[in-house]
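ARCHIVE CARD
Drawer: 12
Card no.: 0347
Subject: one protein chain, sequence and derived structure
Cross-reference: see card 0346
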Amino acid sequence: MKPIKTLLLLLLAVAATATSEAHDITRILESDTLFSTFNNYLSTTGLADEINRGSSLTVCAVDNDAMSSLLSHQYPLPTLKNILSLNVFTDYFDAKKLHRISDGSTTTSTLFQANVKITSLRGGKVGFAPVDFSDPIATFVKSINEIPYNISVIQISNYLTSPEAEALV
């Protein structure tokens, strides 16, 4: 009986750990109305569900002003999903890791299955752009929430986009 009891306790511990590391991107963002439009479109496009199922992700959130600029293009919902997917990295970058980029830049892939270049800029700033762009189109503003090695939610100054992401679906 003792091995069964030990196994049950171990399974309960693993389940508790897995639950404590789970994340809900809409809950993370809902505490700050600055990101309400971004949060709404993560849910509307179904991208929030994809983010919540993933791990070791970085979500690059943009404020309501940046989202207003994006929405002014009147893209259909599938195109908006593509653009927002370009703003979700499939690697974990918290503020510390962003500011420790060696060799001046690194690349990471996104949920849009494209690569983004992250560049160390003058004055301690960090820039972001699709790899085909020569100059950054957004910069790191602040960390919003970090669950180490699971999800990092950061604010960037502008949404990331590319001609491929903007292509009408």
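Annotation on reverse: Confidence is low (pLDDT under 50) at residues 15-20. The beta strands are 57-61, 88-89, 105-109, 115-120, 126-130, 138-147, 151-156.
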